[in-house]
Design a protein that fits this description.
Keywords: Membrane, Transmembrane, Transmembrane helix. The chain is of the alpha+beta class. It folds into 3 domains: 97 residues, PH-domain like, CATH 2.30.29; 70 residues; 70 residues, no CATH class. It contains 6 helices and 12 strands. A 5-stranded mixed sheet has the order 1-9-6-7-8. Strands 2-3-4-5 form a 4-stranded antiparallel sheet, covered by helices on one side. The chain has a 3-stranded antiparallel sheet with strand order 10-12-11. The longest helix is centred in the N-terminal third of the chain and has 30 residues. The chain is flat. The two termini are 31 Å apart.
Length: 245
């Protein structure tokens, strides 16, 4: 595989190939996630019983009623409850993991129960931005930006193997400017969306659903936004309709 300064050459096998590549966390990684959450939950559960016994010896301590109830239970009960809670958290973590299905004519991204499909013709460039996978359209807009914990080289090889152009960095990174209220040069309505998004970003972080939805609203106005330490950076593009399914 050859490389330029920032772009890996696509090396697909032709548009008629029916080969499909599926990328997701390995079985061992998934089992490790479950085991970690279950063990952590069980450990915290075992700590509950001695903590409750200690609290009931302190007349001034708050939550005496709940502490007495927990102290009366066998130690295995809160440990089992903690394990169950850990299992639920493991299910949530697996649900949020990104799975990628690639062929020469389309890419399918599945995360948090949501599936998005883009035709090969719609995708101009693919790259990683920190822990996120980004697909760019030919108009310079972002088709999607997804949390991605998969091995970067494995993902890059899969995309280039199906004929997609892979960039080592964002080809538009020098166009971004930090947003502050009333920034000039934004399309009408974008400043209000960025203001609302900043509030959600500061309160709930970048993974918040409102933050994601407001990013999509900004994209409809021709604005790309990226986050760094809960600060927003933006650039504009001339929007065209992506080939998405």
């Amino acid at each position: 595989m050859t490389m330029t300064t920032s772009m890996r050459k696509a090396r697909g096998q032709g548009p008629q190939s029916h080969r499909v590549t599926v990328l997701s966390q390995s079985t061992w990684t998934t089992l490790g996630i479950y085991a970690g959450f279950v063990l952590a939950g069980a450990g915290l559960g075992w700590l509950v019983s001695p903590l409750a016994h200690w609290l009931v010896t302190l007349p001034w301590a708050p939550l005496q009623g709940p502490a007495e109830l927990l102290a009366s239970l066998p130690a295995a009960v809160p440990a089992t409850a903690g394990s169950a809670a850990g299992l639920v958290l493991g299910l949530v973590a697996q649900h949020e993991q990104l799975a990628i299905r690639l062929s020469d004519d389309r890419v399918v991204l599945t995360s948090k129960g949501r599936e998005r499909t883009f035709s090969h013709d719609a995708v101009a460039t693919v790259f990683r931005d920190g822990g996120r996978l980004v697909l760019l359209g030919h108009d310079g807009g972002e088709l999607t930006r997804q949390e991605c914990d998969l091995n970067a080289d494995r993902v890059a090889d899969a995309f280039t193997g199906h004929g997609y152009a892979w960039a080592d960095t964002d080809p538009h990174k020098d166009e971004f400017r930090r947003w502050v209220p009333a920034t000039p040069g934004l399309p009408e309505g974008a400043d209000a969306l960025l203001t609302a998004r900043q509030k959600s970003l500061e309160k709930n972080g970048a993974s918040d659903e409102d933050v994601r939805e407001l990013r999509e609203e900004l994209a409809r106005l021709g604005v790309v936004v990226r986050d760094e330490k809960r600060r927003q950076y933006w650039r504009t593009f001339r929007r065209s309709d992506p080939i998405a399914e």
